[in-house]
């Protein structure tokens, strides 16, 4: 089949890693798969031979969004795919409309967030609800039992299109040397190091990690990612006199994420809202013991198939994160148990299992 994946923005983030794995897995099964981004946000996909961009920069205001929507529809009409897979709110909406205008009927949407009721995201949720009820897309994929449950109050016409396919999570391609990894990213060689990854946003709550530094004088924190909260994090770290122990390494491409994780002793995940928590599961599979915000979805996805957990769960504030990090630093036996459980998640989230699920939907 000829398949086009529609993503909103090109950057090194979780949703993009999922479409990378889906594309790679489907190509390995003989399909022709490309991913089109509505706009280029960073250089993360500039060298990807299977990536295309509608706009080379972020659209500004309504005119820019109209240009992106028209450009995407034109791209899909020219490509004439047999199927379209869409990701993220804008990708789902504009990708589905563009696919319909191009005459594509086999459309698979992905729900990367729970329904919203307020603001712009609330409007997008209502549009998504309408599109699902009237059947503009054929199938609607959710990535966890928790996410599926968030749509339990939706009309039956919407829910009957839901299919659960848990995210695939890649395993480390090799064993990285910790000292070499720290040197590569300019991180302290001998200190206790907690690592984290994700966009620097209020929702990801990295500010709790800066606050934890203020309570733990013997630990450093390294965060991979870019985003609007960077200046806030730096300012808080300076005001608490912990700036020398906060390391913001910038955007790390997916090809190097496991090298970055290898630099850490512990993985910290204070995010306030997730539907799966791909970055956290990546860290667990790499063997890092995890301290995570006590979200129901994280308890679900970080549990092995025999019920053992790969994390300790804490409150989402600085005190909670500090306590979790301190408990692990003082408990090597706990760290070893969590590390072993995390590595066992490899089979549960094998990318091949996820890709087989998408292929079954495409061929049905």
Description:
By secondary structure, this protein is of the alpha/beta class. 44% of the residues lie in helices and 19% in strands. It has 16 helices and 13 strands. The chain has helices spanning 14-28, 61-79, 89-101, 119-134, 145-149, 156-159, 178-184, 207-215, 230-239, 257-262, 278-285, 296-301, 318-329, 332-343, 345-348, 351-363, and strands spanning 2-10, 32-40, 51-55, 83-86, 106-110, 139-142, 162-164, 192-197, 219-224, 246-250, 266-269, 290-293, 311-314. Strands 3-2-1-4-5-6-7 form a seven-stranded parallel beta sheet, sandwiched between helices. A six-stranded parallel beta sheet has the order 10-9-8-11-12-13, with helices on both faces. Strand 8 (192-197), helix 8 and strand 9 (219-224) form a beta-alpha-beta unit. Helix 2 (61-79) crosses helix 3 (89-101) and helix 8 crosses helix 13 (318-329). The protein starts with a strand and ends with a helix. The mean pLDDT is 95.
Tags for this entry?
alpha/beta, 13 strands, seven-stranded parallel β-sheet, six-stranded parallel β-sheet, single chain, 364 residues
Topology (elements, then pairings):
Blueprint lengths: L1 E9 L3 H15 L3 E9 L10 E5 L5 H19 L3 E4 L2 H13 L4 E5 L8 H16 L4 E4 L2 H5 L6 H4 L2 E3 L13 H7 L7 E6 L9 H9 L3 E6 L5 H10 L6 E5 L6 H6 L3 E4 L8 H8 L4 E4 L2 H6 L9 E4 L3 H12 L2 H12 L1 H4 L2 H13 L1
Helix pairs in contact: 1-16, 2-3, 3-4, 8-9, 8-13, 11-14
